Amino acid sequence: MSEPTIESILTENRVFTPSADFAQNARINSLDKYQEIYAKAQADPQAFWAELAETELDWFEKWHTVMDWQPPNVKWFAGGKINITYNCIDRHLKTWRRNKAALIWEGEPGDSRTLTYAQLHREVCQFANALKRLGVKKGDVIGIYMPMIPEAAIAMLACARIGAPHSVVFGGFSAEALRDRLNDGSAKLVITADGGWRKDAIVPLKEQVDKALADNAAPTVENVLVVKRTAQNLKMEPGRDHWWHDLQKEVSADCPAEPMDSEDVLFILYTSGSTGKPKGVVHTTGGYNLYTHMTTKWIFDLQDNDVYWCTADVGWITGHSYIVYGPLSNGATSLMYEGAPRPSNPGCIWDVVEKYGVNIFYTAPTAIRAFIKMGDHLPNSRDLSSLRLLGTVGEPINPEAWIWYHRVIGKQKCPIVDTWWQTETGGIMITPLPGATPTKPGSATLPFPGIIADVVDLEGNSVKDNQGGYLVVTHPWPGMMRTVYGDPDRFRRSYWEHIPPKDGKYVYFAGDGARRDQDGYFWVMGRVDDVINVAGHRLGTMEIESALVSHPAVAEAAVVGKPDEIKGESVTAFVILEGDQAHTDTLADNLRQHVASEIGAIAKPSEIRFTDALPKTRSGKIMRRLLRTLAAGEEITSDTSTLEDRSILDKLREGA
Ligand code: 6R9
Q1: Taking the model in full, what pTM does it have?
Q2: ipTM value
Q3: Which residues pair with 573 in a beta bridge?
Q4: Which domains does the chain have, with CATH numbers?
Q5: Ligand 1 contact via 420 beta carbon (within 6 Å)
Q6: Ligand 1 in contact with 444 (CB < 6 A)?
Q7: Smaller CB count within 10 Å for the chain: N or C?
Q8: How many other C-beta atoms lie within 10 A of the C-beta of residue 206?
């Protein structure tokens, strides 16, 4: 960790109480009710979760042990047999929901599709049978590299139905990043599409898969299943590549859900950490099903007729938990949108809200800041009156953006749920309940029932109210990650050792700084490790640095985040070149392109600063703290006594 002290400068005193209108129909409709449930869960978390597992989910066989906690390893509902797709689909077929829209999909070019629960069932079963026909067995890891089309969700559900853990790789990642993830998980098959639409252009996904697999570079992958979306010409490799629409004609629509052990792996999802390559975060079945189900139900307060829209991509945890599993387990109507605001239609988001009468809208602060910049006339010229609840996720929201969201999108009547959580936590951890919790702009407010969180110092002692510290969770919860795929040691090191256990009591270290105010509200301040958050996407500085030094012109690189009005943070790279090459704009551009092709466009440095030396400690550690200050264009006032050579700072300043 690079930042020993955490300061919070944000003070925000406005309080917004849930309207009587909203609270009237809400499941949890007063702060008292929340506190009552919270206290009950805190007194006996196991009994709390067990009761919900019993009443809210369908199990093929009941568990014998609610929680088995051998720090840092946990099992929830051990001995229980369950299949998350049974809970997400089959059980609704016996009710009036059979013909309710499960997924509403809008493509960027304006095409659209609706799948009822009965139709979704049919497609998932067929897809699962197609996977089986290609030799996929329970336990095989399947890579999914898809655009935002219904088949992305169908593919995930098909994997879960037959017990093949999925490993979804965001479609914006490069062929190299895809290959690394396929290899790390020893994926047996990749599901992709010919392409997807993004800002009026085709993203050629299958082409990237071909690159990732070229020269047998991902040797475990035997087959590629391709969904037709954009219909450009493709090279299909005989024996390896198969069209989904061809296989679909040959397989039956009958595929019973495989009974899975509660602790069988449901999926792996890669995320950036402070060191080394991305971590494969492992989630298992029963606990994740329960946790995403309950958080969706209470936080989004879904009513039977709601149209719910989460704007995330299924390539991120938010898409997994709050486009696919949580909403479907609740029998909701979940909207998927392929597109993004673009010059040909900057108001497309509000078109979709109007077209489908969206009631619940969940997006990221970076998107909100971009909406603000594009102008109020875009939302103001659409009918947004269907909206009744708004949410945000991905990074701290600045109070100005919160207030704009409340005023311009929510017309001052929609509660806002600012939800703090992570890939690792599986589901939302700190959040308002919209009919119960008074909100303060910029605060994620209070922990979800069953979640016991604290703000501590590096010794694990709770800090005083309003003092900065490290955000930790002190009791296991059903949705938590189980391990880092193939690297249990890294799991222990990354999450359970920064704060040493006291009296044998382990705490989960989230990697975020936070403070708690006098009302117990949490204010999350951002990462305390070498992770940067660019437009809500987590990037490790190490990953970008190793991409840069893999370029032949680069000798050394140090990457830091720089505050950015829209994206929250942007990437600044300090680069030392090999030999005495000229510091040209062309080379800087080449390096930016190189990072895009190594990782993906989201990781592209917005600024490259050439330098002859980097500020280092005497033991040779790069002092990123100083580089961050320089990148932000601020004066260095903090301690520089550990710096080996002070003249470097002056040179870096001159070069700015
Ligand atoms: C769900 C997701 C996790 C990191 C997390 C934190 C930041 C997410 C936040 C928030 C402040 C919120 N973060 N939600 N910070 N307020 N409401 O985003 O997962 O991609 O793993 O990122 O995002 O820094 O540690 P993930």
Answers
A1: 0.92
A2: 1.00
A3: 559, 608
A4: 20-83+280-524 (3.40.50.12780), 117-258 (3.40.50.980), 531-654 (3.30.300.30)
A5: yes
A6: yes
A7: C
A8: 24
